[in-house]
Design brief:
Oligomer: single chain
Largest sheet: 10 strands, mixed
CATH topology: Rossmann fold
Strand order of the largest sheet: 7-6-5-8-9-10-11-12-14-13
Strand content: 25-35%
Number of helices: 7
Length: 279
């Protein structure tokens, strides 16, 4: 049997390759963060469809697979699928020294991956609405001096100016304060999800003060983001997802009337199939 470090390295290479990335920095970040330190003691509940199965023992090798591990099973809160997060973090294109706001940090595992990528010259603010999980994240991330954990709802507190806002809870819309918090060149990566069914992982890039490029990364399902849900917008999003391709998403607009290129229309914002350069 291989060593735990060998399992962790294989896991890192596997999930990053599964995401379609060859980013050696991302592989090294996943290889450097011990997943077992963030998911509580084993045996571990692994989410499968609509239920949980427990690993056969407490050997950490059991969780170096592309699986969701339950953090609070009674609330259906999991440590998310590694290949999905590898795909989304790769899309963020993080650089050393950047400032990251992580919304829905759970117990801190992906916060640690993000912190490893930005390095000690960067900073990560990790927000978690569930107080018990935030307390665990604070303990788990104590060795990262450039990470700050806050037990807070990201829709109720001002977000710091950020190069990346990485959201791990499903919203029907991008809250205006999140878009305002992006630095020019900053990226918002968030699950845009209707009330039922799968949504889309959306990447929004602030091109300049009032212009936002947008792309759809992949289909996703996430637990709801408290304070960022709206039934009318959910219906509009569901309709867009049924009628149109994710590949058509090109830009996001605020405070203007939607035109014929509108892909999805919300309150005060809309997604367009037209790229910024053509507007």
């Amino acid at each position: 049997m291989g060593t735990l470090q060998e399992y962790r390295r294989f896991f890192a290479e596997f999930v990053v390759a599964s995401s379609g990335s060859k980013d050696e920095r991302l592989i090294n970040a996943f290889a450097a963060v011990p997943r077992e330190d963030y998911v509580g003691p084993g045996p571990w509940p692994v989410f499968v469809g609509s239920r949980y199965l427990h690993t056969v023992d407490a050997d950490p090798r059991s969780i170096y697979q592309d699986v969701l591990v339950g953090l609070a099973v009674e609330r259906k809160i999991n440590n998310g699928q590694p290949s999905l997060h590898a795909h989304c973090i790769a899309a963020a294109g993080l650089k050393p020294g950047e400032f990251v706001t992580h919304v829905g940090a759970g117990t801190g595992y992906y916060s640690a991956v993000l912190a490893t990528l930005v390095g000690p010259t960067g900073r990560v603010v990790a927000l978690e609405v569930e107080a018990d999980l935030a307390a665990k994240a604070t303990e788990n991330l104590r060795t990262f001096r450039h990470v700050q954990v806050q037990a807070a709802n990201a829709t109720n507190v001002p977000l710091p100016a950020s190069d990346l806002i990485y959201v791990n809870a499903g919203a029907t819309h991008p809250p205006p304060a999140w878009l305002d918090a992006l630095n020019v060149g900053g990226r918002l990566i968030m699950p845009l999800t209707p009330n039922d069914g799968f949504g889309v992982m959306l990447k929004v890039t602030r091109a300049h003060a009032s212009a936002y490029a947008a792309t759809a990364i992949c289909r996703v399902a996430f637990i709801p983001c408290v304070g960022a849900r709206d039934d009318a917008t959910s219906a509009s999003l569901s309709s867009a997802l049924r009628r149109q391709s994710l590949e058509e998403v090109r830009s996001l607009h605020r405070g203007t009337a939607p035109d014929a290129t509108a892909w999805c229309v919300g309150h005060g914002w809309w997604l367009s199939s037209s790229p910024l350069a053509a507007l």
